[in-house]
């Protein structure tokens, strides 16, 4: 596939991508200064048994990570939000439940850049996605052994270093992405399993450390989350994308029990539909009636914020694992 050429530096229309040596620990560098006008919006789209994550920066830049299992679901979500173009699309790995809708997204929303691995795992339907990228003249980028940083307006996306490709398990070829916006952060690692995650944990721990939101890998499967990762990431909330009554039994009981023991609330698309989180870089809010706005422990400023009902609320600094309550866990 000759058109898949990794690029080291790109700067076009305010969307910049560059190789980088890694992110400093939080507190040393809070990333781009967030503007005060509009918030960051992250939608974990309800696309059934698959993944699709929509990211919209305060400046209106759009990133899409995966496109679900079906041709039309992700495109319908984009259209319903008034989106007619995408700045960058990222396909975490070559499985249908992540790329099923990507061909249509590529042809209709014409992303400026397309990030995809060079894994040898392929199918006819996956090749159609690559053909669409080629036909549209879209710049293709392959992850490398070094982190890559993408400035999506004032939002920073970091592509995690790509471990050596596995010929045995395509899930372990997943692209990992960290989002930072002020003191708010999200970690998204596709369907990565133990081998790939262990590489990131051992070689790039600062890229995983202290994230506000953890998107559970592999739809909440037992092989997608482990205690060591949670101790490093220390998320305030976890999100799982899956279908109601799926045949895989996701999320697995082991994952659910682990999150409960760690006191990490779990939001599931099979129960809530699309999970939308907004942030101004200092606080974050679940866009759902009756859910309160919560303060990001890694943001700055006053800790008094308005709740969804308009009343004033106070949030404490992030508690230790041992002292966390289980309230709000589902």
How would you describe this protein?
The protein is built from eight helices and 20 strands. The chain has 330 residues and is of the alpha/beta class. Strands 1-2-9-10-11-12-13-14-15 form a nine-stranded mixed β-sheet. Residues 1-29, 289-295 and 299-330 have low confidence and may be disordered.
Name the features.
330 residues, alpha/beta, Metallo-beta-lactamase, Chain A, nine-stranded mixed sheet, 8 helices
Taken together, the total number of domains comes to: 1
Percent helix, as a range, is: 10-25%
**CATH homologous superfamily designation:** Ribonuclease Z/Hydroxyacylglutathione hydrolase-like
Largest sheet strand order: 1-2-9-10-11-12-13-14-15
Q: Biggest β-sheet, characterized?
A: 9 strands, mixed
Low-confidence stretches: 1-29, 289-295, 299-330
Q: In angstroms, what separates the terminal alpha carbons? A: 44 Å
- Taken as a percent bin, the fraction of beta residues is 15-25%
The number of E-state strands comes to 20
Q: In the CATH hierarchy, what is the class?
A: Alpha Beta
Cα-based radius of gyration, to the nearest Å? 18 Å
Task: Please specify the SSE layout and strand pairing.
Elements: E1 9-12, E2 15-19, E3 40-44, E4 53-56, E5 62-65, H1 73-80, E6 88-90, H2 96-99, H3 102-109, E7 113-115, H4 124-135, E8 139-141, E9 148-152, E10 155-159, E11 177-181, E12 184-188, H5 194-203, E13 213-215, H6 227-233, E14 237-240, H7 253-262, E15 266-268, H8 269-272, E16 275-279, E17 283-286, E18 293-295, E19 304-306, E20 312-314
Parallel strand pairs: 5-6, 6-7, 7-8, 12-13, 13-14, 14-15
Antiparallel strand pairs: 1-2, 2-9, 3-4, 3-16, 4-5, 9-10, 10-11, 11-12, 16-17, 17-18, 19-20
Helix pairs in contact: 3-4
């Amino acid at each position: 596939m000759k058109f898949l050429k990794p690029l080291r530096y790109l700067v076009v229309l305010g969307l910049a991508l560059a190789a980088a040596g890694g992110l400093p620990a939080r507190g040393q560098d809070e990333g781009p200064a967030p503007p005060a006008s509009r918030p960051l919006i992250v939608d974990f789209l309800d696309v059934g048994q698959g993944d699709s994550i929509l990211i919209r920066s305060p400046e209106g830049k759009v990133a899409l990570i995966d496109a679900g299992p079906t041709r039309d679901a992700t495109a319908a979500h984009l259209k319903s939000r008034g989106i007619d173009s995408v700045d960058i699309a990222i396909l975490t790995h070559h499985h249908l439940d992540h790329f099923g809708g990507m061909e249509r997204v590529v042809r209709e929303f014409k992303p400026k850049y397309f990030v995809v691995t060079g894994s040898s795992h392929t199918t006819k339907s996956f090749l159609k996605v690559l053909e669409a990228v080629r036909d549209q003249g879209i710049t293709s980028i392959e992850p490398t052994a070094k982190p890559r940083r993408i400035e999506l307006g004032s939002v920073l996306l970091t592509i995690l270093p790509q471990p050596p490709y596995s010929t045995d398990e395509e899930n372990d070829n997943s692209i990992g992405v960290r989002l930072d916006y002020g003191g708010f952060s999200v970690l998204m690692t596709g369907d990565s399993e133990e081998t790939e995650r262990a590489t990131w944990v051992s070689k790039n721990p600062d890229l995983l450390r202290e994230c506000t939101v953890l998107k559970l890998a592999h739809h909440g499967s037992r092989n997608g989350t482990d205690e060591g990762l949670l101790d490093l990431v220390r998320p305030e909330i976890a999100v799982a994308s899956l279908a109601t009554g799926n045949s895989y039994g996701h999320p697995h009981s082991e994952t659910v029990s682990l999150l409960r023991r760690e006191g990490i609330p779990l939001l599931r698309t099979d129960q809530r539909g699309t999970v939308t989180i907004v942030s101004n870089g200092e606080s974050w809010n679940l866009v759902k009636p009756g859910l309160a706005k919560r303060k990001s422990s890694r943001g700055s400023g006053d800790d008094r914020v308005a709740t969804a009902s308009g009343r004033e609320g106070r949030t404490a600094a992030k508690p230790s694992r041992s002292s966390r309550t289980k309230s709000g866990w589902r």
